[in-house]
Each structure stands twice: as C-alpha cells, then as structure tokens.
Amino acid sequence: MSTEFNIGFDNSHYNKLIIEDPGFSDFIEFLFNSDLKLGKIEAGITYEKLSTYNIFVIGVPTSNYKLDSEEIEDLVKYVKDGGSLLIINDKGGEYENKNNLNELTQHFGILFNSDQLFDNENYSEDISRPIIKDFKKHFITKDITQFIHSGGCTLIIDKSVETDENDVRAIAFSSEGSAWHKYYDSDKRNWIEEPVSNAPIIAVAHYGLGKVVIIGNLSLFSGFHKLSGIYAADNFKLISNIISWLLNKAHSKEAQLTQPIYTTIPIKQDLFYWIKEELDEGRWKTIEEAINFALNVVKMRMTNHQGNEELNKE
Fold it and tell me: Alpha-carbon distance 45 to 167, whole Å?
C-alpha cells in the first residue's frame, strides 16, 4: 500500500458517486481539505490499480455495469493484503440499481437487501428519511447521536464467514416498533411491505489485514439535501469517522511507531485561514506538517516544564 493517504473512486461501472458530480462536491472538498489525495479507476478494476490507494470507494454501480469475477477477486485480495473498502449501495439494493455488489460483499459477510427503509415515527421531514439512533459502540459511532438514512436499503449480516482473521458486525440499526421496509420479492416479482425491527444499516468488517465499511445510503454523502444529506444531523461526523477508521491501520509494532494516525478534528476558522496563508507562503507544505510541528513544540515545552518541576522538588 502507498505510504501516503490516497483515496480512489470506482469510475468503471456507471457509478452514481463520482468525483465530478456536483452533488457530492462538499464530500469531495472535505477529503481535499483533509490533505487526502484523490484518484479514480476507469476501464476496469485491477489489483495493480487498487494498490495505489489506502481506501477505495465503490459508490453504487448501476445500469448492469457489473463487477466481473476478476475484479471481485482483485478487490478481495486488496482488502486481505491491507486495503480498505467503502462500499455504498442505495434504495432497492441490487434489484433497483441493477448491480451485483453482493457478489463482492458476501466475502466479508454482508449483503444488501433489495429494499427501502421507512419509519413512521423517527424521520426527518418524510417517512422515507428515517432517523437512525440505535448503535453499537465502535470508533465510527463515537459521538454520533443520530444520522439520516434517506432513501436507503438495509443489510444482512452473515457470521458464518468469521475466522480468526475475519470478523463482521453491524454497528447501526433501524428503530424498534416504528420501522418498516418495502422489499422486492423475486419469486412473486412484486414489492412487499412489512414491519422490520433493528435492521442493520451500517456494517463493518476486518478481513485479513484490511477493513470494510458497507452502507446502503448514497444521500448521506450529498450536499443537495439539507434535511438528509451530508450536513443533516450527525451525518458529516459519521462520514469523518468512517474515513478515519478506514485509514487507521497498523499491522505490526514497527508500524505503530512509524505509521501516522489519521484523524479529523474541527479547527477554529481564524486559525484555519491563518494556516492556509502560511501554506501559500511556503512555511509548511501541508496542514498535517504544521499541526505535527505545533504538537512537537508543545510536547517539548511540557517535557521541559515537567523536568524543571522535578528538579525543584529535589
């Protein structure tokens, strides 16, 4: 894997989420402002192309532009060798979006339902925009009180794939008592409505040396919808946590000492614009370099201060 923080996007399968789409410009800008380098894979996914990226995003393939068996094999190998995948589907799952993401995600113990979630009590403006507020403790759900799952599908967790090196779990769930879904019954060739309780909404997996996050909600990343998109509820924080968790991997004691920890933190506006001016003047190359310099100065001064206190005690 690259030593830099690089994020790649699938642009080979008529994806709904692409870098150039203005609907996702706020999400893309967030990644740029976090000093992440962005790229995309076109004309087919290969292991060689994937190895350039720390995270690879597959954002809702559509129109029967499906992953082929070699691409799936390379994606699984990429994760096993230490890569991170963020896989996003949308309402209706595979059936409505005409993709075959389950052929990939089944390797990690997660499947997309061909459904759409609704909630009659916990929603933002409309019952098709459920408010999700039931979580399991995890890095991704830290400081999250609720997020909006607008026009999204649910997941299935398959624990049978778990081994000593692979584990999978859901970390966010639909409401109990008021949620329901409309799912496509392939046998009856019809949409069926039924209650659903504690349906998985976000799932995470460790697979070999890598990580996977899976969610069936594209609007989470959109800047067009104030009541359900990236700035609604805790959606932005959730996205920040997802990216941070996927980037932070250390597979040895040596890596723990040398590999940086990626984190997203709020910076006061005056400090942010000041440091941007300093960067423009060439004082530092990146915000990361400036923050690490400042922390080293604070660490050195506190260490010296503590040493002086010990001498005074003697």
Answer: 25
